[in-house]
TrEMBL record:
The record marks D124 as: Important for catalytic activity, responsible for pKa modulation of the active site Glu and correct orientation of both the proton donor and substrate. It comes from Sphaerisporangium rufum. Residues 317-507 form the Beta-xylosidase C-terminal Concanavalin A-like domain. It comes from the Bacteria. InterPro entries: ConA-like_dom_sf (IPR013320), GH43_C2 (IPR041542), Glyco_hydro_43 (IPR006710), Glyco_hydro_beta-prop_sf (IPR023296), Glycosyl_Hydrlase_43 (IPR051795). The active site is at D14, E185. Keywords: Glycosidase, Hydrolase. PANTHER family: BETA-XYLOSIDASE, BETA-XYLOSIDASE-RELATED. One of its GO terms (biological process) is carbohydrate metabolic process. It holds the Pfam family GH43_C2. The lineage of its organism: Bacteria, Bacillati, Actinomycetota, Actinomycetes, Streptosporangiales. This is Glycoside hydrolase 43 family protein. Belongs to the glycosyl hydrolase 43 family. SUPFAM superfamilies: Arabinanase/levansucrase/invertase, Concanavalin A-like lectins/glucanases.
């Protein structure tokens, strides 16, 4: 049996994993998107189902006005003595930022409010529960002293589980494997056969990403690097390799004693562009001479034992007939009011036009899901009678300065491409006022073809294919993959009008 990588396609960076009995749980970063930190469940390491989000209440996660690619960085998930612990960093929070821990006895929630860790600094925090039951905080920060930009080190302190605060002395553990190395981050500690292993990423999160490992006889060190470091990187395989940027890994051992690693990587296409963001991959790990040896990451690899455990397939079409939004849908920043409604018109998603726009660092009226395939088609049908400057329709989003819209405005339908904060209308079509309007986008690589219909099945292209590179990280910057959303805005005007969406369909297209 073989499996296909990535195991979580689309924007699922910085994976962290833990096993409880025969069950595996995995989390990823979410940055400025809400709810924060999706949590997935698997029985075979290959097939994953979403079971909720860790930070699903506004009181847990304040993302008001957060910059693109600020917010929640690199969570770590661990389980100890019947309790799940998640530690992460809120970067550039408007009221409070830094490292914090939340806990739960059920990974599906509810999760606690944050326990902030004011005596720690840096980012990418992690936890180790050693064989004696002691808990150890560790993370990445600027080295002391720092000799150059990107010069980081890994720090360690004990965690008092009663107070949920660090205690005891602080230790600087390691600066990474290579001389003048940059961005030693994403640290995870493990205790294996009496020794302590420190796994870190270095080289940055782009093409030069790499994983290195050090070990020690005691948790506080001293740590000695593996002479064969880095233990995993694809930077030597060239910019045109189908999987690049391998790094930010986390190890897990199966009940049968095998070792595996989840990690992030990118799949560039259309040149060195990766609209899908950093995705979650899986690779086997063996041990040689007391060191872990991860396998080079491939698109197809032998599957873990035992037999596969797939979950029921997710429908391609959301009919909006559930009382709450499916976990696949996210909001941009923390929603402070419920601008969406699934009950006002059963079987429809109603979005209220509000003054907030996608071009602002605000929480616009938009629900969005990840783009997960380089070739895909997405369709919806909308009822919307715009007034004044209102607009509603489909949005393909990288951030507030880089996105593509297919929106109905007063009297016409328009394709708008926004790059570096400037809008350009690429195509227009006159459409009847009121009534149902079908909207669609079909992507073939970096060509995103917009289409519409005023009667069922009578699809027409709107303009030429749009260059989708505006949705890629090398163009737009940051750490986010592309999203596809349903959007409505009064563009600074008074709120009150609504747009109704009957259904939304997303499906991959053949390569």
């Amino acid at each position: 049996m073989r499996f296909r990588n990535p195991i979580l396609p689309g924007f699922h960076p910085d994976p962290s994993i833990c096993r409880v009995g025969d069950d595996y749980y995995l989390v990823t970063s979410t940055f400025e998107w809400f709810p924060g930190v999706p949590i997935f469940h698997s029985r075979d390491l290959v097939h994953w189902r979403p079971i909720g989000h860790v930070l699903d209440r506004p009181g847990q996660l304040n993302l008001d006005g957060i910059r693109p690619s600020g917010g929640i960085y690199a969570p770590t998930l661990r389980h100890h003595d019947g309790v799940f612990y998640l530690i992460t960093t809120l970067v550039n929070g408007p009221a409070q930022d830094g490292n914090f821990i939340v806990t739960a006895t059920d990974p599906a929630g509810p999760w606690s409010d944050p326990h902030w860790l004011p005596e720690t600094d840096g980012f990418d925090p992690s936890l180790l529960f050693d064989a004696g039951g002691r808990a150890w905080l560790h993370g990445a920060r600027s080295a002391r002293p720092s000799r150059y930009d990107g010069h980081l080190e890994v720090w360690l302190r004990e965690l008092d589980l009663a107070t949920m605060q660090p205690t005891g002395p602080e230790h600087a553990l390691w600066e990474g494997a290579l001389r003048d190395n940059v961005w030693t981050e994403g640290p995870h500690l493990y205790q294996v056969d009496g020794k302590f292993y420190l796994l870190v990423s270095e080289g940055g999160t782009g093409h030069d990403h790499a994983l290195s490992v050090a070990r020690a006889d005691t948790v506080t060190g001293p740590y000695t690097g593996n002479p064969r470091n880095p233990v995993l990187t694809h930077r030597n395989l060239g910019l045109d390799h189908p999987i690049v940027g391998t790094g930010h890994g986390d190890l897990v051992q199966t009940p049968g004693g095998d070792w595996w690693m989840v990690l992030l990587a990118m799949r560039p296409y259309g040149g060195y562009h990766y609209n899908l963001g950093r995705e979650t991959f899986l690779t086997p790990v063996r041990w040689e001479d007391g060191w872990p040896v991860p396998a080079q990451v491939e698109s197809s690899m032998p599957a873990p034992a035992p037999a596969p455990h797939p979950w029921p397939p997710v429908p391609a079409c959301d009919q909006f007939d559930a009382p709450e939004l499916d976990p696949a849908w996210n909001h941009l920043r923390t929603p402070r009011e419920r601008y969406w409604d699934l009950a006002a018109r059963p079987g429809h998603l109603r979005l209220r036009c509000r003054p907030e726009s996608l071009t602002e660092r605000a929480n616009p009226s938009m629900v969005a899901r990840r783009q997960q395939h380089r070739n895909f088609a997405a369709y919806t049908v909308m009822e919307f009678a715009p007034r004044g400057g209102e607009r509603a329709g489909l949005a393909l989003v990288q951030n507030d300065d880089f996105h593509i819209l297919l929106v109905r405005t007063a009297g016409r339908l328009a394709v708008v491409r926004r790059e570096a904060g400037r809008d350009r209308v690429l195509a227009r079509a006159e459409v009847p006022a009121g009534g149902r309007l079908w909207l669609g986008v079909a992507a073939r690589g970096q060509d995103y073809q917009m289409s519409y219909a005023t009667e069922p099945g009578e699809w027409r292209p709107l303009g030429d294919p749009v260059d989708g590179r505006v949705l890629s990280t090398p163009v737009a910057g940051g750490f986010i993959g592309a999203y596809i959303g349903l959007y409505a805005s009064s563009e600074g005007g008074p709120a009150g009008n609504t747009a109704d969406f009957d259904w939304f369909e997303y499906q991959p297209l053949p390569d």
